Model the fold of this input.
Amino acid sequence: MSEITGSAQAHGGAIRVEVFPGGALSTLELRDAALRLGSRGLSDAVLGAVREAAALANQRTRHALDTALAGLDPALLGLDQDATLTERVEATTPDTWRQS
Done:
């Protein structure tokens, strides 16, 4: 099985993140434009991108583990997440992953 990650960007790609399931940061890229956001703006944008990337990584993990762990609460694995982010990620889920 390949490594599961999620990625997101903010401010037109000035901020790019990649995280593992659960939200552990694996990659952070900042371009000069991101640094002009100021400390508060930069931290808010990075955290927002991390939350979005974690939602994607968590959803991918749920899909990968669905059969093996049927009935297990994802929160026990640290894979719970915000419902709004789940909806956004679900919109990008390939049809082949969807259950009928």
Q: What stands out?
A: The mean pLDDT is 83.
